[in-house]
Write a structure and sequence with these properties.
heterodimer; A: 279 residues; 6-stranded mixed sheet; 11 helices; B: 331 residues; alpha/beta; Rossmann fold; 19% strand; binds adenosine-5'-triphosphate; binds iron/sulfur cluster; binds magnesium ion
Chain lengths: 279, 331
């Protein structure tokens, strides 16, 4: 992230997938026709090291969300491996699976739909500890995490509708931090937010990576947002990783067609003022 | 304002929208000339959609409008619901924030477009259907003959958004209001949709009111911009001037919060400027300038008296407008 890399360049990946493929069956076109198949993920290699922030970009439908489902263990891959700390999460035994599940947490795009509207914020925050059966001083943990995301403790008594979008996204990040994860996966965490609030949330994610030594997997459509938050970017297209590189290199010198399309479609205020944005 | 022979596409004077309890729009004025394009930006909850809905006569139950909305020779504020309804889709039309909830889920998309055409032009079914196919072709949609027969859930988000635009354009309205027409789309589809809207508005000579919190979209599409904060316009002017030399501190904050390839990532140590705090709730606005709790330049005067647009000879409602480089040099 900074000029001085916070992790040794040869550090072992913390979360990794190897040669991962996933095929979905689609609806039949005719009654007795075979069901067409769609290869949603095709031989994916992807990894993130301790304290590293990596980005994942790609056009709509390229498979980004499906890959995060694999990275978080929500779905088991048809082919290939998901490794946490070097051990396969599906065959590494129960204790390792438990460690994996508490160590990898996710933040979703729309905080309003990812938090239960009938639950007080305090209850929502405790929920992951309960479902992962994590012991300890839960009250102290809540206060610690609220402090990390810059929220006041009077937030605990309130309901989601009493907060703005930016505050809710902080709450969603707080909830993901509760189990003390090592890897945070954020799927389009700011695209539902206003520009000025986006900046607050992006800065927060950046601080968490630095202060807590978290690894971050950051997914977005907008390359400039990804470039701001991460130091390495994977580009996906039709289920494949088509390019990997530093954000600035991808911007200046995109190689794959998919990267070129994404870079070319980024609108900027400057291009707009120059009259060239929609050319 | 009155010297031009041509009437404006719309002229809004001191628009107030309230429900008796809170006031979501607190005295908004602007004009859009024939064929002009104005952007309306501002944070979530600043009153952009309420302004648009007031123009369309589509406010939710219990909300009412004061002020004037002059359009096509009448004041829309004084028009009956029936008169307003006969205008919608004809002299003014709107692309809504969420296409899935504003298209009818159980009617084929082609029928939805052609019924708008038939209602407003009296064209017979055949003519309307032919025009619908033509419109869908103009929207660059694939397989038009097949697509008209699809239901909204059978097409992708980007396709749905283009159907909405086709519907809004069907009767060559004088004014098109587009409320966040591309937020749900990925950057490549977004650019495609904006290009289409751009070309279609130009070809029809319609005026455009573009609502978004995305500044690059305004820069690409509009010639003037109005910045809203807490129900009021706090800065208004040509896009080139406002974005290059913002006068209001909120406008400056918005522009600085924008991640661009220039302000990021060279060594990774950069931080985005963000506006601290958040928009105040409408029922407990601070006295004076509503932005004062978040403003780096706020003084006692800002906390006591509300600034009006133009009160300092600039088109920003600010007691201490940001100086341009020229003004600084002249001192
Ligand atoms: N359960 C499923 N059955 C069949 N196809 C599916 C299923 N889930 C996803 N797909 C398809 O898999 C592909 C990848 O979808 P995915 O949600 O991973 O894309 P994405 O890159 O996250 O896109 P977006 O940017 O729009 O969120 C798409 O073509 C999608 O239609
Ligand atoms: N149906 C409603 N009932 C009560 N309050 C409402 C209703 N619709 C909007 N409001 C309030 O009116 C104010 C203005 O809302 P509006 O929808 O115009 O904001 P906006 O600028 O369009 O925001 P966004 O960017 O989120 O679309 C907000 O404070 C909102 O909470
Ligand atoms: S009036 Fe005062 S508080 Fe409001 S924007 Fe101007 S300087 Fe800031
Ligand atoms: Mg997705
Ligand atoms: Mg709105």
């Amino acid at each position: 992230m900074s000029a001085v890399t916070p992790f040794p360049a040869d550090a072992r990946p913390l979360l990794e997938v190897r040669q991962l493929s996933q095929v979905y069956n689609l609806n039949r076109q005719k009654l007795f026709a075979p069901r067409p198949k769609l290869k949603v993920l095709d031989s994916i290699d992807f990894s993130v090291r301790p304290g590293e922030a990596v980005g994942l970009v790609g056009e709509s439908g390229s498979g980004k969300t499906t890959l995060t489902r694999m990275l978080t263990g929500v779905e088991r891959p048809g082919e290939g491996q998901v490794l946490y700390d070097g051990v396969d999460v599906w065959t590494g035994g129960e204790a390792h699976e438990k460690l994996f599940r508490r160590s990898v947490q996710v933040v979703l795009q729309n905080p309003r739909s990812s938090l239960d509207p009938r639950m007080r914020v305090g209850t929502s925050l405790l929920e992951p500890l309960r479902s992962l059966r994590i012991e300890g001083d839960h009250a102290a943990r809540v206060l610690e995490v609220l402090d990390q995301v810059g929220l006041d403790k009077n937030a605990l008594e309130r309901f989601p509708h009493e907060f703005s979008g930016g505050q809710l996204q902080r709450i969603a990040i707080a909830r993901a931090l509760m189990p003390g994860p090592k890897v945070l996966i954020a799927d389009e965490p700011v695209s539902a937010l206003d520009v000025s609030i986006q900046a607050q949330v992006l800065n927060l994610l950046k601080d968490l990576v630095r202060d807590l030594g978290l690894s971050l997997v950051f997914i977005a459509h907008d390359l400039s947002v990804v470039a701001y938050t991460t130091s390495k970017v994977y580009v996906m297209s039709s289920g494949k990783i088509v390019e990997v590189g530093k954000p600035l290199d991808l911007f200046r010198n995109p190689q794959a067609e998919a990267t070129q399309a994404l870079v070319g479609a980024v609108l900027s205020v400057e291009a707009g003022l120059a009259g060239s944005a929609l050319a | 304002m009155t010297t031009s022979a041509k009437p404006h596409a719309i002229e809004v004077n001191n628009l107030v929208v309230s429900n008796g309890d809170v006031t979501a729009v607190r005295g908004v004025s602007f004009t859009i000339p024939q064929g002009g394009r104005m952007g309306l930006v501002g944070e979530s909850g600043s009153g952009k959609s309420m302004t648009a809905l007031a123009l369309m006569g589509l406010l939710p139950m219990g909300w009412n409008t004061h002020g004037n909305i002059l359009h096509d020779g009448v004041d829309l504020v004084t028009q009956s619901d029936k008169a307003l309804s006969s205008r919608r889709g004809r002299t003014l039309s709107m692309v809504f924030q969420d296409p899935l909830s504003s298209l009818n889920p159980v009617r084929r998309v082609g029928d939805q477009i052609s019924s708008v055409i038939r209602r407003h032009t009296g064209a017979d079914r055949k003519v309307a259907e032919a025009q619908t196919i033509e419109l869908i072709k103009q929207m660059n949609l694939p397989r038009p003959e097949q697509l008209v027969r699809a239901y909204p859930h059978e097409i992708s988000g980007g396709q749905r958004q283009r159907i909405m635009i086709a519907m809004a354009l069907a009767c060559y309205p004088q004014l098109i209001i587009a409320d966040e027409p591309t937020t749900a789309l990925d950057v490549t589809v977004q650019k495609q949709v904006l290009r289409l809207l751009n070309g279609a508005v130009r070809d029809r000579g319609s005026a455009l009111l573009m609502i978004t919190h995305d500044l690059p979209i305004i820069a690409a599409m509009c010639d003037t911009v109005a910045v809203m904060y807490a129900g009021r316009i706090v800065e208004i002017g040509p896009v080139q001037e406002v974005f290059r030399n913002p006068r209001h501190h909120y406008t400056r904050g918005l522009l600085d919060s924008q991640p661009t390839m220039d302000n990021i990532a060279l060594d990774g140590s950069s931080r985005l400027v963000s506006i601290p705090g958040m928009v105040p709730p409408l029922h407990s606005l601070p006295t004076g300038c509503a932005f004062n709790p978040r403003c780096p330049a706020a003084t006692d005067k800002c906390r006591e008296t509300m600034p009006e647009l133009g009160s300092n000879g600039v088109s920003a409602a600010c007691w201490h407008p940001i100086q341009t480089a020229g003004e600084v040099a002249a001192q």
